[in-house]
């Protein structure tokens, strides 16, 4: 009896066909898959997979599948619809086109159901608003009101305490401001007194010169008094400089000393009139004090030379560090522009049909007075064109929704009996629209593949 060695149990990798990425893809994904098979056939599923992977219309929630996954999904769709899969090997095969039309009809039905649900929701909300206006829901509103009033009362209680606490810092700030103003006024008064004291002393001393002294004694007295006035002025200026923390350069002090000596020599010369001497002495003292103040004031601080350069560099950095636009955003904008051009071309071709005058503009009251009552959402080809240009219609589903609404309104109001009826023309318009959409999607697939 032969003995065989058993290898350890290893996980067996199943084929890709047993791993469908999406168990039940959405209706839009099914429609795109069927259209891709119509364009390429089932002979080469690798090309079909590449075309669908590069498509911008593929819904994100559907995910991506392998070529075997797409093949399995297509076979499931064909079996559900009772169609033959073997007859779809060549492009534009009849079973594949029939599947596309069936999926189109299903998509239109779902869109119609969504529109009806929105109408029902709108009617419910309008009825609720009417009940609130009539006062039928006052009890329910009153039951919900106490919770709101209690929260409002809590906020009202917290309000006064917050306001009182806010008032305290304000009052403290106002008191501090008043103290600062009082101190500033006191300093200004002290400076004014220090500036006016030399002049008053000079006037008093000048007034005392009216006594009956001799000319020589008067001259000697004036010289001594002028020296005392200069000393007082110098002391006052030094005090001011010490308080302000500003000094005078050595060269400027030497020049001022020389000027003072020259002025003293001129003042020591015999002059007539003691009053004039007192006045001139006070004037010269005031001039010297003003000069020293001007000299002691430091020049305005000029900005450093590198400040402007730094600002310019910062601006340059800001300009150079701007983030470039991502390529994905550029691709999205380009795709949106291509769709807008394609949608506009489709509407223009619909307007070129012989029966398009029925759908060119909205129905007026003069033509059909009850149209706006029977049709809740009227639309026309002009409205669709405006929506495409404004960006309100940017996807294939949105364009299909509006064109389907246009055709459904026409059939609902006019019926489809007779080849010359508006409803029959609406059916022709929808068939023409389907063919144009097939051509547009095929062009998009070809462009994506290239």
Describe the structure.
One of its GO terms (cellular component) is NuA4 histone acetyltransferase complex. Residues 200-218 have a biased composition (Basic residues). Keywords: Bromodomain. This protein has 450 residues and is mostly helical. Among the domains are: 16-129; 198-205 and 219-244 and 252-292, no CATH class; 330-449, Histone Acetyltransferase, Chain A (Up-down Bundle), CATH 1.20.920.10. It contains 14 helices and no strands. The protein has helices at residues 27-40, 45-54, 67-81, 94-134, 138-207, 215-244, 250-268, 274-296, 305-320, 327-351, 371-374, 381-390, 396-414, 422-449. Helix 1 runs antiparallel to helix 4 (94-134) and helix 5 crosses helix 8. The chain starts with 26 loop residues before the first helix and ends with a helix. The model is unreliable at 1-22, 160-176, 188-204, 206-220 and 246-251 (pLDDT under 50).
Topology:
Elements: H1 27-40, H2 45-54, H3 67-81, H4 94-134, H5 138-207, H6 215-244, H7 250-268, H8 274-296, H9 305-320, H10 327-351, H11 371-374, H12 381-390, H13 396-414, H14 422-449
Helix pairs in contact: 1-2, 1-4, 2-3, 2-14, 5-6, 5-8, 6-8, 10-12, 13-14
Biased composition (Acidic residues): 178-194, 223-233, 240-267
Keywords: Bromodomain
Biased composition (Low complexity): 141-156
